[in-house]
Amino acid sequence: MALFGQKGGRKKSTDYFVAVDAGTDLVKCLVFSKTDGVGATILGGSTVPHVDGSMRGGMVINIPEAAVTFKKAVETAAHQANVRPTNLIMSMPGDLTKSLVTTVHYHRAQPEAHIDSGELKNIIYKVQLKAYEQMRQLMVKEQEEGSLDVKLINTTVVDMRVDGYKIANPLGFQGGTVTLSIFNVFAPLVHLGALQAIADELELDLISVAAGPYALTRCLTAHDENLSGIFIDVGAQTTDLVVVSEGGIAGIQNFALGGNAFSRVLASELKLSEDKAEQTKVDYGEDLLDKKSKGKLQPILQSVALMWARGVTQGLGEFTHLDVLPNRIFIGGGGAALPEIKNALMTKAFAEGLPFTKKPYPAVIESTELNDIALAEGVNLNRTDLVAAGLVYLTLATETPEDVVGTILRRIALSMQV
After folding, report:
1. Which of 276, 331, 365, 418 is the most exposed place for a label (fewest CB within 10 A)?
2. Is the pLDDT of residue 408 over 70?
């Protein structure tokens, strides 16, 4: 679930929303409407480059300048959709957030008693208190400062067990030990404040902020509760890794190497301008080049892809709490268009030293695989729009009445932010 300070000034009956993915180089917007509470229809989209000096990586460093770019992107998407959105959901790059899985083993004084909602609330509260303390210690250590204020932006249940048995809802069960694992994403208030300021400039209600990798993964795993896989988003300057184990997010890692690295090497090796190198890379990924040109590019791109794959190996090596890594790998983002990316994940060198029990099987994510999202006539999505589409999905992913644990978790998370 996505969490943020909803203003509440506008009614929930607003029909039109805009999802904004602020990437390293580009702002991507999707204007959409909810469809009878069961899905969403994307009505318009846009891609606008950042103004020089407004962003560093995915971080806003000049709010007025950044707001100009965001406004242009929103207005362009709204023009295509022919509607005026009033609610906004935004992404935050994975490298600006911190995530962790917190597990609490709750030993019950009366194992024979049935677990009720009051006891479950107490267990969830203990998990979140522990998570906040762990995150504060982590961020203070990394920043080497005094106190660094953070805010919870995404939270979801990873695993629930009673006396070692995995369950979907602990209410009514008996047992001596309840084990609950919750995945949380935190972000520094300074970055959230910048996004809120931009939303105010746009005169939109910022209803939610979500980590980009989290949004994409939730969308792609929506209808497979037991899915295990590694989700990779190849951005312009960074690559995000999300590991999902039996339907639960086990963590997020990222490293500073993305699609721009391929363009830089092409520019250097072939003596091209940056713009020409980027366009050449895009044309190659879309199979628009002749055989001779492709033959010249392939060894260059392959060498960069192997270096990139070493970054993936190192990132996956951080998931030391997992005994086994899933062998299914899903690749998204603009860089996924390069076949060398997929091929690099099929080499022995990539898997060496990682706890795979089966040979890794990478596949490129297509926009047609998005759950519960339809496209209006004339609207097209590509792999670079996947994170924005994930934000669209998050507005649909509200808890059902049967999701007792998720509902309690959301209420506790919101109460702890007050």
Report:
1. 418
2. yes
